[in-house]
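Page header: ASSEMBLY MODEL / two components / 203 residues total.
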Amino acid sequence: MDPVDTTLGVQSIRFRIPQEAPFSYHGEVALSFKWEVIARAHRRPGLDARATHEITVLP
Amino acid sequence: MSARFQVELEGARYAPGDTVRGTILVLEGGASRSLEALLEYTEETEDVSGVATSVSSGPLHAGDLDMGMMFEFGLALPQDAFPNYRSEHGELYWQLDVKSDERGTDTHERLRIEVEPVRRTTAGSGASPDRLQPEQPSSGFASA
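Prediction written out in full:
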């Protein structure tokens, strides 16, 4: 995906969940699938800034 | 000697809330304490596998099993049952487990069943926004 415009203010982005993507699932034994939207700003030098937001992808 | 079973199902594909009906035919009898049928949602990776949730018929029969005995069962999938899913990381699937509780090792006859996701209608732009459901407010920026 292209970088998001870094001007101040709200940016709107739409993602398409792939048709064959796993659904969100918190496993009991061996397997889990977790989805997050992550906004990440590269900083050179320095640590990246990031914000995460968990989402539920339905089956 | 361990019992042997033949399991036949009325359907091939199921959806959450459906009842899985079928019959168990005893091909070879044997000593048994009890017989039950279970629907099990199984998580499986290359290294580990286990049952995450199960639905039991309760005892279908108590005592030894004789050749020719036949048992009917009906097990309801939960309304919120997850579907089967396979990926490179592992697999989630439903299976029917016919279990004879025996002295020593139990006898199992397992049969996978297909459970499909609930069909949802998508409105709007062609994407699937109804698959997205935010759980919590955004956590804000933090250095990582």
